[in-house]
Amino acid sequence: MTESTSPQTSPSKSAFITGASKGIGLAVAHALAAQGYGVTLTSRKAGEVEAAAAAVGSGARGVVCDVKDPAALVREVDAHVAAFGGLDVLFVNAGVGHFGNVADLSIEDWQDVIDTNLSGAFYTIKAGIPALKVRGGYIFTLSSLAGKNPFAGGGAYNASKFGLNGLSEVLTLDLREHGIKVTQIMPGSVATHFAGHTPDDQKDAWKIQPEDIAQLTVDLLNMPTRTLPSKVEVRPSRPPKK
């Protein structure tokens, strides 16, 4: 494990965020830290997650963790609880994309997508549930509109997000009696580094921005406890004309 900083004081609430070295995960980390949450950011790349945690500040922790490793997730969630005194928000964000005709898609690419986007989400949630049960909390699964709208060349990615949506819906039923909310966030086009894209301020101005998803997350956390928006679809309001 690589940890960038240690919290000086224990905040009243905390969040564990996977895939947080850039993009949506990092934006959510910034937003929750600004709300007073202690945050742990995870990534497979040490240098990136250390820099991300340092940028968030406020005692943010940056740890190296591959969501395909269930034991590593248990270890890091336990370390998070030890550092912050508990867990309130689990933001399940780590994801990859490999695209191509099913006939041409390699077994390795299929496994990487399913193992990260679906099995990795399950492992993350499984590791976080015991701590969330202690005082209730919130699980966000970062899905996609690709979880309901198939497209050519999206065999692995579509399958992973359709599966994540199904898992999220079951979690809502499994965990509500424990005071744990579950929301699946399903964005369309987001200006991130996903699948090798390099965000461009001008070309990507029409897209959803990572900060928009972060704001949505904060808004959902501020909903009355009696109310659960269980599925939120998010689209660019004015996409380019085709």
From TrEMBL:
GO MF, any single term: oxidoreductase activity
Keywords of this entry: Oxidoreductase
Organism: Deinococcus puniceus
Family the entry assigns: Belongs to the short-chain dehydrogenases/reductases (SDR) family.
NCBIfam families (UniProt xref): PRK07326.1
Chain ranges of the Ketoreductase domain: 13-193
Protein name in UniProt: Short-chain dehydrogenase
InterPro entries: KR_dom, NAD(P)-bd_dom_sf, SDR_fam
